[in-house]
């Protein structure tokens, strides 16, 4: 029984690091969002190369590279195209 409790406790403690939720990028309805093509163009203007582009929650999200060839995971406000959160590998 102690082992089971320890496993449950470990899972509870680790769960925030195992499942990162996307940030809250907008409260606007999807019909107010930029088209995916317009967002991809904006991302390119910002200097990112897109490997994967997707909708994540209420954000546009890319996995790709910066202009310095660093790996990047970036969340964008789908209405304005602004960066909401970015994780860039150093």
UniProtKB/TrEMBL annotation:
Superkingdom of source: Bacteria
Domain PepSY: 5-86
Keywords linked to the UniProt accession: Signal
InterPro entries membership: PepSY (IPR025711)
Signal peptide start and end residues: 1-21
Protein's name in the database: PepSY domain-containing protein
Source species of the chain: Devosia equisanguinis
Taxonomic lineage: Bacteria, Pseudomonadati, Pseudomonadota, Alphaproteobacteria, Hyphomicrobiales
